[in-house]
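For the sake of transparency, this paper describes our internal protein records without simplification. An entry from our holdings is shown next, in its original layout:
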Amino acid sequence: MHAYLATICRDLDAKVLCVGGVADHIRIVTTLPRTVSQAQLIEGIKKPSSKWIKSLGTRYRGFSWQRGYGAFSVSQSQLKTVVQYVERQEEHHRNRTFQEEYRELLRLHAVEFDEQYIWD
């Protein structure tokens, strides 16, 4: 999946720095092409990857991405740290779930959210 997502991003003219994740989420560190909106990039990743994984067999028939997504900008000075973090997802999620981590990230950056809308 990670390699396929990287290929999709490259096809959309996004420079992929890192793709990582675990069973319940994925993280992509990439540039946003000047000709593609954030929403277009996400849609351009989700649609073909969903179709592709379903083509791998009946066990993936029920696969779907969550409707929403989180997108965050990263300063050049923090890029290496973020890439290293994404590369170590399994290690990070041994002690804290993705949901716990995501809520903390939103709080840390003063992003207001409503629990009823944050998860599918």
Remarks:
- Residues 16 and 30 are 4 Å apart (CA to CA).
- Helices lie at 2-11, 38-54, 79-87, 89-92, 98-108, 115-118.
- The mean pLDDT is 91.
- Strands lie at 16-22, 25-30.
